[in-house]
Amino acid sequence: MTDATAFLKSFLPAAGAALPVALAAAVIRGVLVVAFAWLLSGIIDDAAFHGADLAELATRIELMIVVSLSRAVLGWVADQAAFRASARVRMTLFRKLLDHVRALGPVRLVDAPTGELVTILSDAVNAIEPYWRRYLPALATSAVIPLAILAVVAPLDWISGAVFAATLPLAVVFMILAGQGAERANTRAWSTLSRLGGHLLDAVQGLPDLKLLRAAKREVAVVKEMAEAYRRDTMAVLRIAFLTALALEFFTALAIALTAVLVGFRLMWGEIGFHIGFFALLLAPEFYAPVRALGVERHAKMEATAAAERIVAFLDRPVPAPSQESRRLTPETKAVRVRLETVSVCYGDNPPALDNVDIDIAAGEHVAIVGPSGGGKSTLFALLLGFVEARAGRVLIDEIPLNEMDLADWRRHIAHVPQRPHLFDGDVVENVAMGRSPEGGSVEAAVGRALAAARADAAVARLPGGVRTRIGENGFGLSGGEAQRLALARAFFAPAPLVLFDEPTAHLDPATESDLAQAMDALAAGRTTITIAHRLATVRHADRILVLDRGRIVEAGRHEDLIARAGTYARLIDSAGVEPLVNDEAGQ
């Protein structure tokens, strides 16, 4: 596993030139305080003890104003540049995580709770941002400014310089010791937050089932207990943070007071001039200020480290090695030949989900896959989509091995219409286009044509804003049939040579099913089509039917031929009658 700190540093190039600008501006701003203190102490010394009038002091006063304004401008520049650097890092990290999620696919993420993924993609990414925006500038100023002040003060007043040099390491050592306890507490808090976030989101998603099972009150008690644990862990972090800040303030206040006492006595004894003494006294708070600020911002670093550990653990999930060939289909491809040669797929140590399967689907052929739950139908789709890899055998697409193809390009050649399509929080155009551009014309016009082909145009026309009506997350506000029509419109929007239907009519009424079936036939015309069939009506229209049972093809042929054989297929028909062929929502 990559070290969390090394992982954070690996994003230095992503910050670009904004980070050096932020660090340089913060350091220069801090160093300018030396010039400001020197000018101020000199002006007061000359005015109070040497009788200088305003005309004699005008130049230095103007210069002091310039220095003060410069510090203000540099502070603004440092903040803006640090914000830009942190935003770039956050976007780069978010893109890296999304790419990893895409590479893993839904099958490899089946054991990852949805809430944990959301926590990593949102809270963890946001927690890393202060590391770049606040901690690194504080680290740079604490490394440079005290040394710069010490280098100026020590030759002028070696006693004040000695106090600075002796007390600063004590504050640093205490900050490190206190930080170790805070880091452990931060890690605990992040672990608790991840569990809480994952559990809460999963509970919200399953709320209808919890209500049906009368388990909602019990789930509320579980969430309450986890929230209380997170509160305790968070308060432990804050307690350490406040105690650390208090101790640092106490030590630095003592050091500043000691400097003031020594300067005061030496002024009284005449051992030091007012200009130098006041100059050293003005710089005493500024000498410790960067260290105090670093002590505060170290908690941002600890939180970022704890979040990075969660991100690193997620990124360590193995993904299939990218193909070195990256072969692609030609853009003119209208239908593809799909061939499986003695393919076996296993999930861990479980029995094979597909066991030495041989399938040859001609270009333009419509094949229906049927079989009992757990027979391997969904695994076949996952294999064709590139979400799982064959342990043995090979998959050929137009004689090109699938493991040699550019998966991103291959998936663009697939139209997948699942049983329960996911609709996003956005308008109809956004949900149909899915960020894709049509070959010609405007996106809205292309979406209109896709809706008409999917027979969804009438339903969309009834919506308040037409194609610009905003749809809630997961199709909130639409019926099941309307959601399926939009999913079918997605496939029409960017026609693909391979169409995968996971029986999108399985949960619809007969009238809607018949209407959608005609649109599906129009989409499949001239394209290679594979349908996981749950209903008899779908099976009858297929050119060929394959019966999968326990990962093997036990029968193949047309509907009439398979009925005549009185085998597995016929038994499925007898048990299902004229309604669903097989209920397979949870099939493998």
Provide a compact summary of the structure.
Mean pLDDT is 82; it is low at 577-588.
Features:
Rossmann fold, alpha/beta, 64% helix, ABC transporter transmembrane region fold
| Percent in strands | 5-15%
Q: Looking at this structure, what is the CATH superfamily of the largest domain?
A: ABC transporter type 1, transmembrane domain
Number of helices: 19
Rounded to the nearest angstrom, the radius of gyration is 34 Å
Mean pLDDT rating: 82
Binned, the helix content reads 55-70%
Strand order of the biggest β-sheet: 6-9-10-3-11-12
What CATH calls the topology of the largest domain is ABC transporter transmembrane region fold
Distance between the termini: 32 Å
Poorly predicted spans: 577-588
CATH architecture of the largest domain: Up-down Bundle
| Secondary structure category | alpha/beta
Give a short account of the largest sheet.
Answer: 6 strands, mixed
What's the CATH C level of the largest domain?
Mainly Alpha
β-strand number: 12
Overall shape: elongated
- What is the domain tally? 3
